[in-house]
Write a structure and sequence with these properties.
alpha+beta
């Protein structure tokens, strides 16, 4: 008798993109960035890397924001975050309204999420932990949602990531319409919607890690898309193109790393933003980014 259980094994397919590591957005003022990303969002400045005044790395679960000091860059879309407590996030946002009053900062509780805008116009969408939607995470960056414009060729965008990078991807729809999705590591997605208006590319980037590092490089190089050979463990490209016609479909810089990159899999420190000197409890400084599995 065959006692094996029946599972949909495709649900565990990750594809060649094994990590969405960070989003890099330049900011003109590190103090205002600290107020928004650390005090407002409740995230943690990386205690080991980039301790100076011209570049801040901010940890959000297993991912990061990289925030160098330059003229601001704005992503064409929305950065999705899961945070432990939306009520606590709303209280923190209320507390920083004064220091950020002269900026583009704003937030709105809308249904089961908070839509927030950073001091320079980048949009974020904060969600509470939801195992059915996001898995066991309590703090993370589960998706980047790009607005590719009303005439976007979403299926062709998906095909680029599948055929050139070896990713798992698909098409789906929700209350806001059709979208293309690309798996970017366990529990992470790049999402492309045919809405909004793609902003002129201004130099911001996302970082991904590939298991098969060399074959996508050869395909990108054959299409003339590699823009930078940084070191043995990193290269970059900007244009997402139709694999057949080579027409440019979307532009955002991709920092592509291999799994041999020294920073791959580095454990990131996350704090409990609700703990202060007045309610301090030894041993509870760190925040666990995942829920405990049910027994």
């Amino acid at each position: 008798m065959d006692n094996r259980k029946s599972f949909d094994r495709t649900l565990d397919d990750v594809g060649n993109i094994v990590e969405l590591g960070h989003v890099n957005l330049t900011v003109p003022d590190q103090a205002l960035a600290t107020i928004f990303y650390v005090l407002g969002l409740g995230l943690t400045r990386d205690p080991y890397m980039m301790p100076g005044l011209d570049l801040m790395w901010v940890n959000v679960g297993r991912a990061q924001f990289h925030l160098p000091t330059r003229a601001p860059t704005i992503m064409s879309g929305v950065i999705g975050l899961v945070v432990p407590d939306l009520d606590a996030a709303e209280r923190r946002f209320c507390a920083v309204r004064g220091p950020l009053a002269s900026t583009q900062f704003g937030y709105l509780r809308r249904g089961d999420c908070i839509e927030a805008t950073c001091p320079w116009g980048n949009r974020l969408r904060l969600h509470a932990p939801d195992p059915a939607r996001f898995g066991a995470i309590t703090l993370d960056m589960p998706y980047l949602e790009f607005e590719a414009g009303p005439h976007a060729r979403l299926a062709a965008i998906r095909d680029f990531y599948v055929e050139i990078l070896g990713a798992v991807g698909g098409m789906d729809q929700d209350a806001r319409g059709d979208f293309a999705w690309v798996a970017a590591g366990p529990g992470r997605r790049l999402i492309f919607r045919g809405s909004g208006q793609q902003r002129p590319f201004d130099g911001h980037h996302l970082q991904i890690t590939l298991a098969d590092f060399s074959h996508p490089y050869r395909k990108l190089a054959a299409l003339g898309l590699v823009t930078r050979d940084a070191d043995p463990h990193e290269y970059r490209f900007q244009d997402v193109v139709d694999p057949s016609s080579r027409a440019v479909l979307f532009t955002v810089e991709h920092e592509v790393r291999s799994m041999r990159h020294p920073l791959f899999g580095r454990a990131l420190v996350n704090r409990d933003p609700d703990q202060t000197n007045r309610n301090y409890a030894p041993g509870y400084e760190s925040w666990r980014w995942a829920l405990r599995p049910e027994s």
